[in-house]
Amino acid sequence: GAAKLVEAAELKGVDNFDTMLAGRLRQHWTKPESAPAGGATEILVQFAPDGTVTNALVTKSSGDKVVDDSVIQAAANLARIPEMSSISPKIYSKYLQQRSIKFELK
Question: Which of 3, 34, 71, 106 is deepest in the core (most CB within 10 A)?
């Protein structure tokens, strides 16, 4: 029914948000020389309703602490996703208080 369509649209928006978040993290990331090719660090990024990054933590290590720390630093450098201030509080509370991102080390 209609609820399923609404949820599908919401999830598409959340996918787009995740893609944007990964792209912004990459812009703020300084790749350590030790970064393994083809590796990944999974992080959980927590947001305030206005898009401010309130916390970031590693949920699955790349196996290299320097690399993991560099991805967390990218989230700290990102600081805020201003577009989030235009997202409805309902969508924020349902999906965007925290996002898990698999950050590819490339």
Answer: 71
